[in-house]
Amino acid sequence: MIREWVNRSGILPLNVSIYETMGEHNDIDVQRACSCWERTLKVLGESSYRWKDVSMNMSRQSYEAIASSVELKPPSRSLTLSNDCGVQSRTHRCGDALQLWKEPGFGPQRVITDAPVRFGHFNIGWQHVSHVDVKGWSVVDCLDLLKIAPRLVSCAFADVGGHTHGLDEPVICHESLQELSLYCITSPAAFFDNVAFPSLSSLAYPSEYDEVARLVFNVNDLSLMSFFTRSSFPLTKLSVVAHMFTSEHMVIILSTVPSLTHLRVYMSEKFGNKGLNEVGYSLPFGSSRFNCYYVDHC
After folding, report:
1. Which of 58, 94, 218, 235 is deepest in the core (most CB within 10 A)?
2. Domain of life here (predicted)?
3. What is the pLDDT of residue 265?
4. Distance between CA 89 and CA 15 in Å, rounded?
5. How many Å apart are CA 181 and CA 131, to the nearest integer?
6. Distance CA 134, CA 118 (A)
7. Region label for 159, one of left (φ > 0), alpha (ψ between -120 and 50) or beta (otherwise)
8. Which residues are within 8 A (CB) of 281 and not within 5 positions of it... i.e. 6 or more apart?
């Protein structure tokens, strides 16, 4: 059936979704117990030179089967990797990363991953990727990505965590990154202290508002101010959560980005409007260049 579908599609680009469900048998060895599944992966692999958008949600065993016995070409546009099979992915060293295809000169433009898939689990040609949207990585994962992906234009890092004490990294100056969305479940200082983005035009920090953010973000975090000063970027859009700043500190930070035209401030009812009004009155921008959005969250 799959082979017929591939043949009927002719030479058209293919959007492929591969979803594996393990049920109660989480310890199945895919290669030995299900030769039909392996043949399916190989048939799909025969048409991979036409893949455009690919989404894979499989167990670690299936990813290993592809890496070892299926000749894949990277999709031309996007790749989504996840693992909902109930098999928790163990920690892997960089040398253990799975090589999904053997074409080092090509790679997808956009990569999306969901926990428990981590940066070190796959070697997919990050040097070709321009957009990433990932969830559940560590701060170290994010920094490692920035080191080897010079073409990145936009990054969305969600639920960033991990142990960051004693992290001693040289500053990573990424010249091409223009959009960043960052939501941490641990202190973001280890990230901001080690990066500079001189081309950044849009920053969402954190990308969502909730009570977890209230607990992990320090008021007037100095790392953010240092990041702004170090990057000296042409920022035009900024989203922040009001409880992370006093109004005085927010004014100081905003004074470092005279290019700003859109500011979105997330606030709870408990925060009140007084501090935000002080920010609005003190902004060094003409009203025609500035839009402020007040968003209430309970």
Report:
1. 58
2. Eukaryota
3. 79
4. 26
5. 12
6. 9
7. left
8. none
